[in-house]
């Protein structure tokens, strides 16, 4: 386990990187996490010390290929701070983001608390405690200059490399939809750039949600009703240039869009 001094040093580095909007060339060796648990310890200390509420959570590495690149055998998660959640259509300053990667994702709004318990939560359990799926675009903008090179523990420490989350409108009548087969289309300035389905995220977005709930409550955390959980990219990572508009089309679930102003 990392020392408290090392954890505090890592948190201070991430807070400064966010303040200056610059990417770190890795954490100093003395405070670099060696394991996923180290990364989560830094992440939790950052949340406790940053002075901003958590509006929700992102789950990343839900595609097997991305896990292979990071050298891990499971996804990871990170908090989304309330000031970084935006309603669609969103217009965000390009200068606020060192990287402007976008991913179209199924997000879910929690309708009930999830508390730690001995019995694991199953996908059917979490489905009963979800009020609505929400079309989402996650903005991937790490505080590290090359997250894959620095490794999964550092990516976890960096709040799962989340930069922002843009949300469309919730759909409350969704229970009959097959989210695994549900198509998502990403368009950039009106041109189709990528397509995917919910099957790309651990076979089904609710599988991701169940994994996250169990992993998070397993660390003794209670998830609160009203929080948002985004479940990983269905369209891959696409870099957006300033001035371009991205639209995620989720069919009957609606659309979500973001543009970075120059």
Keywords:
eight-stranded mixed β-sheet; five-stranded mixed β-sheet; single chain; globular; 7 helices; alpha+beta; 13 strands
In brief:
By secondary structure, the protein is of the alpha+beta class. It has helices spanning 4-20, 36-50, 64-70, 123-128, 147-150, 152-157, 205-217; strands spanning 54-60, 76-81, 85-87, 90-93, 101-110, 130-140, 162-167, 183-188, 191-197, 228-233, 238-239, 245-249, 255-261.
**How many strands, what sense, and barrel or not for the largest sheet?**
8 strands, mixed
Strand residue percentage: 25-35%
The rounded distance between the terminal residues' Cα atoms is: 43 Å
Total strand count, please?
13
Helix content: 25-40%
Alpha-beta classification: alpha+beta
The helix-strand sequence is HHEHEEEEHEHHEEEHEEEE
Poorly predicted runs of 5 or more residues:
none
* Backbone CA Rg: 17 Å
Number of helices: 7
Shape: globular
Mean pLDDT over all positions: 96
Break the fold down into its secondary structure elements and pairings:
Elements: H1 4-20, H2 36-50, E1 54-60, H3 64-70, E2 76-81, E3 85-87, E4 90-93, E5 101-110, H4 123-128, E6 130-140, H5 147-150, H6 152-157, E7 162-167, E8 183-188, E9 191-197, H7 205-217, E10 228-233, E11 238-239, E12 245-249, E13 255-261
Parallel strand pairs: 1-10, 3-7, 4-13
Antiparallel strand pairs: 1-2, 5-6, 5-10, 5-11, 6-7, 8-9, 8-12, 12-13
